[in-house]
Amino acid sequence: MRARQWLVFATFAATVVLLVSVAAQPLDRLGAVRSAAEGQDQGQVREFTIIGNNYAFSPASIQVNKNDLVKITFTAQDIPHSFTIEEYRIVKRASAGQTVTLEFRADQAGRFTYFCNLTQDPKCRDMKGILTVR
Ligand SMILES: [Cu+2]
Q1: Global pTM?
Q2: How far away, in angstroms, is 49 Cα from ligand 1 center?
Q3: How many domains does the chain have?
Q4: Which of 39, 67, 106, 127 is the most exposed place for a label (fewest CB within 10 A)?
Q5: What is the pLDDT of residues 87-130, one digit of tens each?
């Protein structure tokens, strides 16, 4: 009688262990999927060509997603200009007619002004554009 009770208990226990391990598997798989998605949080590579000319940036606004790798090719067409984003600690100067490149990870969301910080020509203060990081 006791032996049969033990057998019933052992069978029950084995079934519980089996069910728990089967139930745990999809959770593991879910975790793997989640960490793969976090890996994709590295974002995309986004490339822009921006011209600084006649005290204006063209385009005057760019949009990226958070964590995108932003690559910018900046040309100062008429006189020296810079491409500056304070919040991202970016200052890239280009001489007249020169093209420079820069890249950064857009790891802060928000709206950021890009501007020319050169002081030689006071009208450069009017040169502004908006980077939107969503
Ligand atoms: Cu300028």
Answers
A1: 0.70
A2: 16
A3: 2
A4: 39
A5: 999 999 999 999 999 999 999 999 999 999 999 999 999 999 99
Q: Are 15 and 70 part of one and the same domain?
A: no
Q: 87 C-alpha vs ligand 1 centroid, how far in Å? A: 19
Does residue 63 share a domain with residue 116?
yes
How many A from CA of 82 to the centre of ligand 1? 6
- Are residues 74 and 97 located together in one domain of the fold? yes
The rounded radius of gyration (Å) of the Cα atoms in the chain is 29
Quote the ligand 1 centre to 81 CA distance (angstroms): 3
Using CA atoms, how far apart are residues 126 and 76, in angstroms rounded to an integer? 15
For the chain, give percent helix, strand, coil, nearest 5: 35, 40, 25
CA 114 to ligand 1 centroid distance, Å: 11
Reading the block at residue 27, the tokens are 């959770």
Range of the domain at 80: 43-133
Tell me the pairing of strands 69-76 and 99-105.
antiparallel
Provide the token pair at 106. 């857009």
